[in-house]
Write a structure and sequence with these properties.
This is DUF4832 domain-containing protein. It comes from Anaerocolumna xylanovorans DSM 12503. By secondary structure, the protein is an alpha+beta fold. It is built from eight helices and 32 strands. The protein folds into three domains: about 180 residues, no CATH class; about 120 residues, Immunoglobulins (Immunoglobulin-like), CATH 2.60.40; about 150 residues, Sandwich (Immunoglobulin-like). The chain is elongated. It is about 15% helix and about 30% strand.
Length: about 650
């Protein structure tokens, strides 16, 4: 049994009988996390561009809308040249172009796309395959040719294609998801209105259960890593046993079950009819917002399609991870803002609740335990063989060591429950000093979108900062309350390392420390100005707060100026601060030392790791120097 099938089976069983399996890598010690120091990890917001989820434009679209996936259709005749010969050049070109933009592809092969030239390979047509002409109104697609799907030569050719396709592309890092396609108009597994209802004068071109089964089972056999979706379950077809999800190509229009106000033939109702409504727990659900509704579904305060099926209700019943919506390229104003919010409501959303690690001697093993949960509406569907998690150790913001785990993210159910992972490195090889513990999910595309956790310590390089630890006994201990005095004298800072330094300017050293009640900041230099300022990105999130142009990760939520504390919740470069007064801040400054103390309780969104910057500002309100001089704000992790 393949890795993908084993994991799908295991998760299915665990969901049924309520067991939570803990994954241990070969390097993992199965000790309880209770024997290690617990660190609560602050919550935050994951990246808008998280991979493998959200809205998709067509691959030829140009848009700045946050996305990680791109969609395209491709005719079988572009790659199949004979009954068992193939030229993948056209597909390679499409995949490489999308991967070059850092995105994964979602696509579908077709034989019959109304309104377009046939996708049937020429050798089949030349061999006498029956091609049935139709010409429907433009709202039903237009004209085309429906092949005889029951023809044995055609079926053999189709199975050969699927086998070759899976052999070459299963697990390809450029691919996010594949929709089965092939059968029916648009590859959507139906030939409506050419069906069993012949009262409309149209022939019955229904595809047999045998052909549906052949296509489904061949795909299932030859794809064991890449996630697959099919349009809908079919009666008499082994839907339940196939490791394949579904896609709703009329999302928001014909999605809801009949009991929830939808149609008797809707997407979810068809899933319910064949007991497939919970398939999303192990296999991906995708689709397309109904094309006629794409321009308006997010334009109002209530997000719904033309049949009044609300976005929220459709999410709740279908649990989609991705959705084609090519109109995102045209959205502006409130529609754009609403669509960005809607995109983040799809799929997974991983969050770390607690990390377990300890201070070490230079000879100790390094242990990390993680309590992780999925607060999204669907699982993350890939395991460690394609999307591995790394444990990393940073020092002064630079990665010094990393190890790859076998943690399987697809074993975390999308119900908010905690899943525990553990990892131990017997000989980490770390010298004495202070370090930060981190984890990161590796996108198999080297330039692919970074996966961000819904935590405040998430950095733009993909590493989630879990807090600091020490190796050896040379590190300055956490100060006791009152051990730092705000008096303009820096002697009590002598054993505290700088988090930013510079030479040849007025401000030369920026330091920070904390105790259980306060954060302390000290700047040393010469000829420091009278109006100097401290900037703090307290939630470590550059999408909130004041955007100070020099520092790339500004998003400053707090400011200390002239002995007062200020807050700025807006994400803009407009100078607009809320005065919080002097009760929670103390400042002492002279020409060589600037000291400040801020009450931790006064900062509502304080992350375990946050960022600090200092501006030396003279009496004319001109900036004389900065720390850091340029680049990112200085990072500090609470002790």
């Amino acid at each position: 049994m393949s890795v993908k099938k084993v994991i799908a089976f295991t998760l299915t069983v665990s969901l049924i009988i309520g067991i939570c399996f803990i994954n241990y890598s070969s390097n993992v010690v199965s000790a309880s996390t209770a024997g290690h120091t617990a660190h609560t990890i602050s919550t935050g917001t994951s990246f808008d561009t998280n991979p493998l989820r959200g809205f998709l434009p067509f691959d030829y679209s140009t848009t700045t809308f946050p996305h990680s996936l791109e969609w395209f259709y491709i005719p079988v005749r572009d790659v199949q040249t004979g009954i068992n010969t193939f030229d993948w050049t056209v597909l390679e070109s499409r995949l490489n172009a999308i991967a070059g933009r850092g995105h994964q592809a979602v696509f579908r092969f077709y034989y019959d796309y109304p309104g377009l030239s046939t996708g049937v390979p020429q050798f089949l047509i030349d061999g006498g395959l029956i091609m049935r002409y139709y010409n429907e109104p433009s709202n039903l697609g237009g004209a085309g040719y429906c092949p005889d799907y029951e023809n044995q030569t055609f079926r053999t050719s189709m199975q050969n294609f699927i086998k070759a396709f899976g052999t070459k592309y299963d697990g390809d890092s450029r691919i996010g998801y594949i929709t089965l396609g092939l059968l029916g108009f648009w590859g959507e597994w139906h030939n409506w209105p050419y069906d069993e209802d012949t009262s409309d004068g149209k022939a019955n071109w229904n595809i047999s259960t045998t052909v549906y089964t052949e296509v489904l089972t061949t795909f299932d056999t030859y794809f064991n890593k890449t996630q697959l979706c099919v349009r809908e379950p079919k009666p008499g077809v082994p839907n339940a046993s196939a490791n394949i999800g579904y896609h709703d190509d009329s999302f928001g229009n014909a999605t809801l079950s009949a009991a929830s106000g939808g149609q008797t033939w809707s997407f979810v109702q068809k899933l319910i009819n064949l007991n497939q409504q919970n398939k999303w727990m192990t296999n991906c659900v995708g689709g397309e917002i109904y094309p006629s509704d794409q321009g308006t579904i997010f334009s109002g305060t209530t997000w719904q399609g033309s049949t009044n099926q609300s976005w929220s209700a459709c999410l709740s019943e279908a649990h989609p991870t991705w959705m084609i919506c090519d109109q995102i390229k045209s959205y502006t104003g409130n529609t754009l803002a609403n669509a960005k919010a809607a995109a983040k409501q799809m799929g997974y959303d991983l969050q770390v609740a607690t990390a377990y690690y300890d201070n070490l001697s230079t000879s100790d093993p390094l242990y990390l335990g993680i309590n992780m949960k999925n607060i999204g509406i669907a699982p993350f569907y890939y395991d460690h063989t394609m999307w591995p998690v790394q444990v990393g150790v940073k020092q002064n913001g630079t990665l010094v060591k990393s190890w790859t785990t076998t943690w399987d993210l697809n074993t975390i159910p999308a119900d908010g429950s905690v899943k525990t992972f553990e990892y131990t490195v017997s000989s980490p090889g770390l010298a004495a000093g202070t370090y930060n513990m981190c984890i990161k999910v590796l996108n198999p595309l080297a330039n692919g979108n970074k996966l961000g956790f819904a935590n405040a310590g998430q950095n733009t390089d993909g590493w989630l900062d879990l807090g600091s630890f020490t190796v050896g006994g040379t590190v300055t201990p956490t100060p006791t309350p009152g051990s730092i005095t705000i008096d303009g004298n820096s002697s009590d800072w002598s054993n505290i390392p700088g988090i930013a330094t510079a030479s040849g300017q007025s401000a030369t050293s920026l330091k920070a420390t904390n105790d259980s009640n306060y954060i302390y900041i000290c700047v040393q230099g010469s000829n420091l100005g009278t109006n100097s300022q401290i900037y703090i990105n307290s939630d470590n999130n550059s999408s909130t707060g004041y955007l100070e142009g020099t520092w790339s990760n500004s998003g400053c939520d707090c400011l200390i100026e002239l002995g007062k504390l200020y807050s700025c919740p807006d994400n803009s470069n407009t100078w607009s601060w809320t005065d919080l007064g002097t009760s929670n801040v103390m400042v002492s400054a002279n020409s060589s030392v600037y000291e400040a103390r801020i009450a931790r309780s006064a900062i509502s969104n304080l992350s375990n790791t946050f960022c600090i910057g200092f501006k030396d500002v003279n009496s004319s309100w001109s900036t004389v120097s900065r720390l850091p001089v340029s680049g990112s704000l200085a990072s500090y992790t609470l002790k």
